[in-house]
Amino acid sequence: MSKALRAPQASRGARGGSAVLEGPGDGEDMEKERETLQAWKERVGQELDRVVAFWMEHSHDQEHGYLARFRSPSLLSGPSQICWPQRGRRGREGSFQALLTLHSHRGFFTCLGRDGQVYDDLKYVWLQGRQVWMYCRLYRTFERFHHTQLLDAAKAGGEFLLRYARVAPPGKKCAFVLTRDGRPVKVQRTIFSECFYTMAMDELWRTTGEARYQKEAVEMMDQIVHWVREDASELGRPQLQGAPAAEPMAVPMILLNLVEQLGEADEELAGKYAELGDWCARRILQHVQRDGQAVLENVSEDGKELSGCLGRQQNPGHALEAGWFLLRHSIRKGDPELRAHVVDKFLLLPFHSGWDPDHGGLFYFQDADDFCPTQLEWAMKLWWPHSEAMIAFLMGYSDSGDPELLRLFYQVAEYTFCQFRDPEYGEWFGYLSREGKVALTIKGGPFKGCFHVPRCLAMCEEMLGALLSRPAPVSAPARRGAE
After folding, report:
1. Whose CA is closest to 120, among 399, 480, 442?
2. What angle do CA 319, 294, 371 make, to 5 degrees?
């Protein structure tokens, strides 16, 4: 690790104050911190380029499409140009030829091996929607990704969703899995395919200005809210006598994320969904149980702890993701007490209980009473909890200036880059053993696509850039309401 990437030692006594670093002098400490932030910004940005290049080259269904090869990516704009890796070439950074691909209406492959080879052509609606959203967000917010190939691929993926995602139009229920040509294979009795469909449509509207996409997003959003808050019978879940009336944290979490998505720079929709956002936040906060000492993945509908394994289940990565969703909500509401509570209960608490003291990394599942979790993969280290932790700690530091949060960002980011990143073929491995060894060599599958890794990298690059643009150190307000 280069000297610039070594995290300055944050003063433990500085929590609640400005970001003070130990060293011979404040000016020198501040300069060292800026150098470290700048080094991480460059490292994260370069990795984002490599990850996007992997999905651009390997994931697009090229049936009825065509390839356009360029000697250099001169059509790309921005401070740094992206060179897409040549197919089949083992990627040492720098040995690239531009490969930009134009595609039609066939969506994305996500079942990709280590080198990008497609091992299954099934298409997962969660991941189709996520990739459309990711491409649009990159096109809309990063100058260097503002090129027609990325937008064309996003629009093609969006049209695939419009045509095939819903199982029985005009009904709103979406499939979970489709064949390559769009025929439904499997339906989940949940709201998540529909949620990622909504994200994709809203971001397509923001990127293209085509009102039909926003209409799709709002109509689907309203259907999702109806299912969650009024009548879930259309989802097809039977009401069994012995089944507890449980609420998984994922439901209010994803709804809160959609409230943020649809309300961005839109006063009318922000007002329409404001009450829903507050409701979601309250429901997520109910998952803090045991006198504030545990975040539980499932609680009863009235916010009480459930019995058995279901009630004791913890997912540190999910709590951290909920944490940054709640942070954005509290910042938007201007509620410093909620912000402090979120940092303590959804960032620090799950991290300190969920970080493996022997091998590093976040456990996937835990049991609140320290029984052995029943999930076979409980001790594995997965890509997405670490991506969410990077976002959460950097967002927390950006808002508060608490140096402990910056130290934890460095800790998680260093582990993540060292263990998950594939320097040979690009992208990240998704599934590691407890010891941090690669357990599955695949780069994509039914649940891993072009989403968590590039979203993490894009958000961290933006936050690091914003920190570096500040003329003075971040001032950390007193942390009240944390108990």
Report:
1. 442
2. 100
Q: Which of 42, 2, 53, 72 is closest to 425 using CA atoms? A: 53
Helix or strand or coil: residue 247? strand
Cα separation of 66 and 104, whole Å? Answer: 9
Q: Taking Cα atoms as reference points, which of 344, 362, 219 lies closest to residue 288?
A: 344
At 154, list the tokens: 């996003």
pLDDT band (50, 70, 90) for residue 28: confident
* Residue 381 backbone dihedrals phi, psi, to 5 degrees: -110, 115
Reference 454, options 86, 47, 93; nearest CA is 47
The token pair at 315 is 């997912």
What pairs with residue 114 in β-bridges? Answer: none
pLDDT in tens, 165-223: 999 999 999 999 999 999 999 999 999 999 999 999 999 999 999 999 999 999 999 99
Tokens of 171: 């009904």
* This prediction's pTM: 0.87
Q: Which amino acid is at 236?
A: G
Compute the distance between CA of residue 30 and CA of residue 225 in angstroms, rounded to an integer: 47
Q: Report helix, strand and coil shares of the chain as percent, to nearest 5.
A: 50, 10, 40
Q: Going by C-beta distance under 8 Å and a sequence separation of 6 or more, which residues neighbour residue 91?
A: 50, 85, 423, 424, 425, 426
Please identify which residue in the block is written with the tokens 């971040």: 474
By the 8 A CB rule, do 365 and 313 touch?
yes
C-alpha distance from residue 243 to each of 188, 237, 239, 240, 296 (Å): 18, 11, 7, 5, 18
> CA 14 to CA 404: how far, in whole Å?
8
**Separation CA 238–CA 235 (nearest Å):** 9
Beta strands 288-289; 177-178: pairing state: unpaired
DSSP E strands, 293-354: 294-295, 298-300, 313-314
Alpha carbon 459 to chain centroid distance?
9
Q: How far is CA 381 from the centre of its chain?
A: 16
- C-alpha count within 13 angstroms, C-beta hemisphere, residue 18: 9
* Contact of 297 with 279, CB cutoff 8 Å: no
Contacts of 137 (CB under 8 A, 6+ apart): 203, 455, 458
Q: How many residues in total does the chain contain?
A: 483
197 Cβ contact partners less than 8 Å away, ≥ 6 residues apart: 125, 129, 161, 165, 174, 216, 220
Supply the angle between the helices 250-263 and 192-208 in degrees, to the nearest 10: 10
Q: What is the tens place of the pLDDT at every residue in 461-471?
A: 999 999 999 98
